Amino acid sequence: MIGTRGVPAAYGGFETAIDEVGSRLAARGHEVVVYCRGAERPRLREYAGMHLVHLPAIPSKAVETLSHTGLSVAHALAHRRPDAAFVFNAANAPFVPLLRARGIPTAVHVDGLEWRRDKWSGAGKRYYRAAEAQAVRSADALIADAAGIADYYRQQFDVPTEQIAYGATILADPLSERLAELGLTAQGYHLVVARFEPENHVALIAEGMTRSAARLPLVVVGSAPYAAAYTERVRSLADADDRIRLLGGVWDQELLDALYANTLGYVHGHSVGGTNPSLLRAMGAGAPVTAYDVGFNREVAGPAARYFSTADDLAPLLERAEADIPATVARGADLRDRAASLYDWDEVAEHYEALARRLADGQSIRPLRRGRRSAQQWADGARPEHVR
User: What mean pLDDT do residues 66-86 have?
Assistant: First the structure.
């Protein structure tokens, strides 16, 4: 498993997927190798039955992922020949031909539509769009974690994807005793958990709080290593309104679970990715969800969530959550039931295992498509309604 920060998961969706899926595959008797990066990560050689390989990366937004993936692929080619490789992030697609040249069947988990992220310049956006085409040309399989992503690749390239969503951990114990460490009480705060990037709308959520008459604080968990200007915008809003509390990163996973499980409302601002693990984690903890109104979020959270598009939309939703606490808590219970019925990590691991077996047996989508867009698709991104 190549292309992420690795495990134990402490950063994002890819890492969570590898942690949950890889440990289950290892428990089934498979040898699972995970490539890891990040100086802050404990350099374990094994974790949950998985073998870990730690390699460096250049600490720069533009090349951190690519530099680490390049080293990881070189290491894999020099030291092992796995039955199948899973490469995470379409940006890493240029390295896939190297794996395949060694006879290693490879699936690429394409993630969301990275070229739409505001943090990328024109060159970055062009690179991501070219990398998508490279993934289609060179990978033996593409993995999409949401219907909107699958639709996008079908419309852009006329190619199928393996649609495998993330799972949700259903939290039975609310761990409310941990809240005292932060001076919080159960159902006594609203919560945001996100990296500080424009497409996650943390500043918009903070603005919604400033425009509301909500009494309870908005607790914000997250930071951004390469977004100083956006982080300063969020911080300025917090400085102007003492109801907004910035906690920074919370790496204690039990404490983070306690925050999800005891909030009166989780506000989810992500708008670009597919099935978001933070949203699933909140649902699995029974948190009432108010989400940014895009197809991805509606696909995951369904009718029990509330949706917003602007700060003015969000303000009354925060007030309504506080005005009828029993109804708000009941919505959270409905969302937990939805997560339990639709997003099961055991089933996700079974899908990965079945795909790995098919790859090892020689199945591939490569003969189906050359991985090229039409001129008009290059011009407008062929933005299907489902993913807007």
Answer: 95
